[in-house]
Amino acid sequence: MTDRYALIGMPLGHTKSPLIHGEFARQTGQDLTYEAIEAPADGFATAVDRFRAAGGRGINVTLPFKIEAFAYATELLERARLAGAVNCMKFDGDRAIAENFDGLGLVNDIQLNLGCAMRGGRVLLLGAGGAARGALLPFLEQEPEALVVMNRTVPKARALGAQFSAYGNLTTGGYSDFGERRFDIVVNATSASLRGELPPVPRAVFAEGCLAYDLVYGKGLTPFLRLARDAGAGRIADGIGMLVEQAAEAFAWWRGVRPATQPLIERLSVPLT
Ligand code: NDP
Fold first, then answer.
1. Are 208 and 145 in contact, with CB atoms under 8 Å apart?
2. To test the ligand 1 pocket, which listed residue (100, 125, 156, 191) has its Cβ within 8 A of the most ligand atoms?
3. Burial class (CB in 10 A: 0-12, 13-18, 19+), 198
4. Whose CA is nearest to atom 6 of ligand 1?
5. Which atom of ligand 1 is the closest one to the Cα of 239?
């Protein structure tokens, strides 16, 4: 029997998730469909209930519903609980089990695809929104020498520090709080690149040869990536690998089989020029 999966969000006009999961299913020989379901702002629970009643086995969740999905879940696994947001669920009878694979997808892309070990490294995370929050536990689990979070609205960064400092060496603050400190991995988890803006990150943060990573994808050379390249970054990357890797984690969790990610990342990448 064909199993049904879906992405729920709004709007979903340009989503790549059905293509990604369709390709994973073809590659692994899994009998499933994956559709995109748009729901009105107040319609998340209704849309999920309807999908489950029709036999849906699991969903991915994207903006603006990651918090609603947190409330909907009957069981929150640790990454989702700490992130305060859910991007993946599986359904088993009355159970709605919730995960968040965004941060793990990011870690996998950085370490496995881009070849940058986080263990013992100096890591800087820009932003304190949902994506940054989701990245903190997976980042700290890699045991970096130091993890620094900078955010424009400093109390939001400090709140993350209070919540996550028990999990590793975490320091938080504003963009001008860290003097001349340099980092081996600099991750832009702000949404600034969506609007062609540059977060006020000091040029000095980029250690010679570092990796600079922008979570936004499909935008080519963003102002952040341009600054990093000009400041001496050895490698720049956008978030397409993270998108494919979190999808692969979801697929493996649902189906028990891990798809290859590299062919899709290559197919979906745009030049960073
Ligand atoms: P949120 O809206 O939750 O957070 C936005 C963050 O960006 C806040 O920290 C905000 O700072 C900061 N910010 C926005 N504009 C600026 C600016 N001009 N200068 C400095 N800081 C700025 O968004 P998310 O955390 O959910 O998403 C962040 C980005 O990550 C999005 O662009 C999203 O597309 C991308 N993303 C990519 C994924 C992938 O698979 N590649 C997965 C998930 C997200 P403040 O708190 O001060 O307002």
1. no
2. 191
3. middle
4. 190
5. 41
Share of the chain above pLDDT 90, in %: 98
pLDDT at residue number 173: 98
Is residue 81 predicted with pLDDT exceeding 90? yes
User: Across residues 56-83, what is the average pLDDT?
Assistant: 96
d(CA 88, CA 80): 9
Domains and CATH numbers, the chain: 3-100+241-268 (3.40.50.10860), 103-238 (3.40.50.720)
Q: How far is CA 235 from CA 52, 207, 208, 253, 272, in A?
A: 43, 11, 10, 31, 11
For 109-158, what is each residue's pLDDT tens digit? Answer: 999 999 999 999 999 999 999 899 999 999 999 999 999 999 999 999 99
**Does position 1 have pLDDT exceeding 90, yes or no?**
no
Rounded to 10 degrees, what is the CA torsion of 174, 175, 181, 186? Answer: 110
Is 66 in the active site? Answer: yes
Q: Are 187 and 126 in contact (CB under 8 A)?
A: yes
Pocket of ligand 1 (CB under 6 A): 102, 127-132, 151-153, 156, 189-192, 194, 197, 199, 215-217, 239, 242-243, 246
pTM of structure: 0.97
Which backbone phi and psi does 259 adopt, to 5 degrees? -80, 160
